[in-house]
Amino acid sequence: METRRRGRVALAAAATTAVALGLSACGGGSSASGGTQLTWWINPDGGGSDPEGGGQAQLAKECTDKSEGAYTIDFQLLPNSASDQRQQLLRRLASSDTGVDLMSIDPVFVAEFAEAGFLAKVPEDRTSDFTDGVVPPAVTNARWDDQLYAAPFWANTQLLWYRESVAEEAGLDMDKPVTWDQLIEAAEKMDTEIGVQASRYEGYMVWINALIEGTGEQIVQNPGASGEDLKFGLDTDGGRKAAAVIQKLADANVGGPALGSTNETTSLEMFQNERAHFMLNWPYVYAALKDAEVKWIDDLAWTRYPQTVEGKESRPPLGGIEMGVNAASDNKEAAWDAVECITSAESQKTYMLGTGNPAARTEVYDDPEIREAFPMAEQIRSSLADSGPRPLTQYYGDVSSGIQRVYSPPGSVDPETTPERAESLLHAVLKGDALL
Amino acid sequence: MSASTPTRERAKGGKTRLSDRSRSEQHLGWKLAMPAFVVMVLVTGYPILQAVWNSFFAYRLTDPENRRFVGLNNYLVSFTDQVFWSAMWMTILVTVITVIVELVLGFIIALVMHRIVIPRKTLRTLVLIPYSIITVVSGFTWLFAFQTGTGFVNQWIQWMPGIDANYNWFGGFWSSLFVISLSEIWKTTPFMSLLLLAGLAQVDSSMEEAAKVDGASWWQVLIKVILPSMKAAVMVALLFRTLDAFRIFDNIFIMTGGANDTSSLSMLIYRQTIDRTEIGLGSALSVILFLCVLIIAAVFVKAFKVDLAEGRG
Predict the structure, then answer these.
(1) Which residues from chain A sit within 8 angstroms of residue B268, using beta carbons?
(2) Which of A28, A118, A290, A392 has the fewest beta carbons closer than 10 A?
(3) Highest mean pLDDT range out of A46-60, A269-283, B10-24, B100-114?
């Protein structure tokens, strides 16, 4: 184990000559009060670094107080995007940086970190604490190789946001499930747009994955296989149907003038500025629209993610954050204690109210305060329960980047050729025969 | 220094032999230079050798135990992949476009600054402002300016009569290249102009005057007198900017992230090494970029030598 660790230190140094010198200022150890000093690497949220901002910084303080001196949680801020967060954590974990005790991880990277031996397994006696009463897809994302490697902290999902009056005028019955085809046709009829995420980034992968999951296919069909043995569900009937939806939306020109550059923010802007009357987006948009004091807030409505295939239940996208503990941490026991506090129903409620990020524990949605602040709470809970995780593979980064490349720009997507090209590229990349 | 200087003696066979004194001075020189030399080898040489060594292996940072020797396969994969050539094409295009435009603009600015006498220091400071701004910041500024929907460039265009467009500048290769090049040119033209200004200061004004007295036009003075006199300064400016432009990364990373075939070689290296943690492939690409830069430098240095030998530098 020591040799392996030493080897990794050398490799990390060689790989990132320019950046490997970014040493952590913090290390594990005892705090001034005598308790264990923990460092939690958090992703940016609405609370920022404010210990009263309702975000992870506040949870760090509250859990420190609750521990009554057993541990102190200090925090360090990760970059904004999920891929930048992954890179920063990866560099530190690969060099066995003990300055990382616990970390907020995007669910798609749990498999890669666990496979590389960077994450500590959740102790057997704590497993049920972290999984009981948690939406199952979030737990699925926390597992790798039949072991639990992380604890679900919050879980995100997308809803279809729309203007009630416009949907009604378009003749859509929103009490029943709508399909992507119906949505596109309604947007064409009403001369409006649909806010989606189709820029070449992770958000586009979220959309593509949800479309494919909605057909009953999975992008990766044999999770856990080695790179050369991975099988893909892109060049299938389902995969082609998913590509056809993207093609139809692009051809109908209802994704906005810059469909290939749209992300969550631009989608929200389109919706807020009444260019788009339909939008697929995460629940944070509700608070954003209220804060923006849009005049038509009473016309705002939401429903479940659209179906890719009529009659087949949609699989809404799944996001969120998992809590992991560094395998190289000197304070793993205290770190798991802290994770238990951070992922408790009470903390998740605080976090949801403070940042708008939905809880992973289902009981939180029964809370009256949550019900009042989030009128769509029930819709979020049911969407989370039926959500479709993104591919579970240690090569997630390659799979996502490869798909984004071939499916970009959305106007070039052709169901007859694009899925096949994507599969070929992924096979070549994973064999080491192609660049990405 | 000729062979007849007191410290050197001509040995049999025509070779120059150093005297005992000069040999001891030379030894002292080596001893004094050695610490700096060792540091240079460690800091510069070791990473280069390590990169070359890594380029013969296939492995990931997340799976170092599966490191295997693949010989030149990483180079073969690179040279046979369309992505590599697309990145090479983008790199060359950006380099050629930006260096040529910067040279012309930089020369015009240098000429103006050379002629203006009173506020020259202020003018130089003002001109240097873009160069002093961090590339990431200027990159984001240009990104926001050209952003579809919210960017002011599109708003300006829409104010023109009869135009109702909200152009997606980052939706295609050529328009992305245009904005990326514009940002590069805006940022580094001041650097180019200051280098050329230094060259202008070396031009012998009496030759200019003589040419004017002989009836040469302003254009003839520029082409026949000024430019040949500052050839060395032009070459230095071109060398620095070409090497710099060839390693373009920041603006592309910020504006397009490499979408629409706008990845440069540096972006490609970043993607393989940092994003994918494919150390072998990333190292092979780094070595290729290093060789390209070496070749460019060698060409310029050779051109320099010829110039100096002809006494025109």
Answers:
(1) 435
(2) A290
(3) A269-283
B158: confidence class by pLDDT, cuts 50, 70, 90: confident
Q: Nearest-CA residue of chain B relative to A198?
A: B171
- Nearest partner of A203 among A277, A278, A282, A125, judged by Cα: A282
Q: A19-23, A325-329, B205-209, B307-311: lowest mean pLDDT where?
A: A19-23
| Partner-chain residue, chosen from B50, B171, B275, that has the shortest CB–CB distance to A260 | B171
Whole-structure pTM value: 0.83
CB atoms within 10 A of CB A27: 14
Are the C-beta atoms of B71 and B52 separated by less than 8 Å? no
The predicted pLDDT at position B162 comes to: 74
Angle at A410 between CA A404 and CA A414, to 5 degrees: 95
Low pLDDT (below 50) residues in chain A? 1-28
Helix (H) or strand (E) holding B209: helix B205-213
Distance in Å, alpha carbon of B31 to nearest chain A alpha carbon: 29
In this complex, the residue of A90, A200, A270 whose CB is nearest that of residue B61 is A90
Q: What is the rounded average pLDDT of the residues B214-221?
A: 87
CA–centroid distance for A188 within its chain: 30
Nearest CA of chain A to the CA of B299: how many Å?
28
Tokens of B18: 């150093």
CA distance B105 to B57: 45
Chain B residues with CB-CB distance to A394 below 8 A: 62
Which residue among A8, A432, A436 places its CB closest to the CB of B64? A8
- The runs of H, that is alpha helices, within chain B are 20-40, 46-54, 73-80, 82-115, 120-132, 135-146, 152-159, 173-201, 205-213, 218-220, 227-229, 231-246, 250-255, 265-270, 279-309
For residues A50 and A15, is the Cβ–Cβ distance under 8 A?
no
Residue B145 pLDDT more than 90? yes
What average pLDDT does chain B have?
A: 86
A308 vs A192: CA distance, rounded Å: 20
b/e for B91-100, b at 16 or more Cβ within 10 A? bebbbebbbe
Shortest CA gap B263–chain A (Å) = 11
Interchain CB distance below 8 Å, A16 and B148: no
What number is the average pLDDT over the span B197-218?
A: 86
Number of residue pairs across A and B with CB atoms under 8 Å?
A: 100
* Distance between A310 CA and the closest CA of chain B, angstroms: 32
Residue B133 corresponds to which amino acid? I
Please check whether residue B88 touches A, CB under 8 A.
no
> Residue A15 and residue B282: Cβ atoms within 8 Å?
yes
Contact B279 A14 (CB under 8 A): yes
CB contact under 8 A, A432 and B61: no
Report pLDDT digits (tens) over B40-93: 889 988 999 999 999 999 988 888 888 999 999 999 999 999 999 999 999 999
* pLDDT for res A1: 41
Q: In A72-201, which ranges are continuous DSSP H helix?
A: 82-94, 110-115, 127-131, 136-142, 164-169, 180-189
Which H or E element spans position A216? none
Alpha-carbon A301 to chain mean position: 23
Sequence-separated contacts (24+) of A288-294 with Cβ below 8 Å: none
Contact B282/A at CB under 8 A: yes
Q: What element of type H or E holds A349?
A: helix A345-355
Nearest to A200 among B78, B259, B272 (CB): B259
Checking ipTM against 0.85, whether it exceeds it is: no
Is there a contact between A433 and B150 if contact means CB atoms under 8 Å apart?
A: no
SS3 B141: helix
Number of helices (H), then strands (E), in chain B: 15, 4
Chain B interface test: which of A261, A275, A435 (most B C-beta within 10 Å): A435
What stretches of chain B adopt beta strand conformation (E)?
8-10, 16-18, 57-60, 63-69
